[in-house]
Amino acid sequence: MLAKVISCAIVGLDGAIVEVEVDISPGLPSFTIVGLPDTAVQEARERVRAAIRNSACSFPMRRIVVNLAPANLKKAGPAYDLPIAVGILLSSEQVYADVSQTVLLGELSLDGSLRHTNGILPMIALAHEEGLSTTIVPDTDAKEASLIEGAKIIPITSLSQLVSYFRGEIPAPEYKPEEVEEYIPPTTSTTDLAYVKGQEHVKRALEVAAAGGHNVIMMGPPGSGKTLLARSLPSILPPMTTEEALEVTKIYSVSGLLPSDTPLIKRRPFRSPHYSISNAGLVGGGHWPRPGEISLSHRGVLFLDELPEFGHAVLELLRQPLEDKVITISRAQGSVTFPANFMLVGAMNPCPCGYYGDPFRQCTCPPSLVSRYQKRISGPFLDRVDIFTEVPHIDYEKLADNRLGELSERVQTRVEAARTTQRQRFQGTNLACNAEMTPTEVREFCQVEESAQSLLKAAMKQLYLSARAFHRILKIARTIADLENTDIIKAHHLAEAIQYRPRSLV
User: Fold this and answer.
1) Mind spelling out the 3-state secondary structure of 88-145?
2) What is the pLDDT of residues 374-419, one digit of tens each?
3) Domains of the chain as residue ranges with CATH
4) Which of 326, 374, 384, 400 is the most exposed place for a label (fewest CB within 10 A)?
5) 102 touches 13 (CB < 8 A)
6) Taking the mean position of all CA atoms in its chain, how far away is CA 480?
7) d(CA 293, CA 498)
8) Quick check: helix, strand or coil at residue 208?
């Protein structure tokens, strides 16, 4: 007898419908899975066989063929355990149920209990879009699945419970969705800008960066506060919208990094990979591509400490996603595109010893070594950085001053007001902040007053700015004007934006 069950696969960050066909026929006992299954799917044979036997059901001693359609789509992961088991039970007539409009997902243990399954959120979203009325998922994944509004979720703990439900012995297990706010974990504390001594001009640069979503590089001697300032940045970023939170949650769900007690990520990601990271670790990759650090930083911050220590090839890989806000990974089997709309924050020393240009400590590096060190970061890469600021040595008077600076909460209020202005400006588009503007939007929204045109013209000539740098200056000036709630970009807005240009490009 032939049985058909519906399941889902993950392609990049999106779901794809998979039809699980099970045919049981007379012949020598065998259990074959076809349809481009990977190793984890092939291993499902042993898990399914044991789970059925340990769920008070019998495993058919006949010829069993399982086809995962479409055959040209690679099937990976253990999420097909449950649909394969149900298909076998239906085909062997041990249970009777109409599952034509039901999606089944879940990994089985040998005792028949269901385990957490990665990628539940995008698969439930697809099922809902396709009009499939019901989704059966592991009980541990019910909260995550319930994030899709309108989806009917049946949470189960074991295969035996599902068999009892199909046989009419128990009612359908129900999951009553909670309000999202009820099960969002409390935000962990972050470093407050008020506790960073001095460096007021750097704090201002970070405020501008947070308000417009701009990239930042900080350069200064060891111990000047670069890392502390970078880790303070999340405290002034605006909270994510519901749409942004779902985007980030989907990425972490597919990557298997979604905490079991956190169905929805509301805090902006802050990722800080070590400089020994590989190309695939940063941008994503693998035989079947998985999201890398730049995608895990989506809608948040990617902090690269000791920037020149990163491999040259690794940094050059960032050039395309910094412009396009996505990363496309191509393999022989096809291409996968992951989102990569992140704020890049870099920190670096001016030279290997760290004290080049420091008025308090003499640099021990020869000029040629300083030049080679700084040239590890290429001009095209720096051209994609909006804000470059120096973080000087802090003197004793500022360190000994016990007075607090401006609290992050007050800075965040100004940042949120500027972001609100930008959302209103870009209403009806896919843009979220000024840093995402294309030259077309720059021309439309970055109106400069006539008296400031001469300043911009002089900067272009004297600083030999590229067309990309020209547009980035206008975007930063637009953000500074938004912080002042001004429609027109004025001369002092441009002057501040110009001073943030990377020194090596000046």
Assistant:
1) HHHHCCCCCCCCCCEEECCEECCCCEEECCCCHHHHHHHHHHCCCCEEEEEHHHHHHH
2) 999 998 898 889 999 999 988 878 887 888 889 999 999 999 999 9
3) 2-177 (3.30.230.10), 193-430 (3.40.50.300), 437-506 (1.10.8)
4) 400
5) no
6) 27
7) 30
8) helix
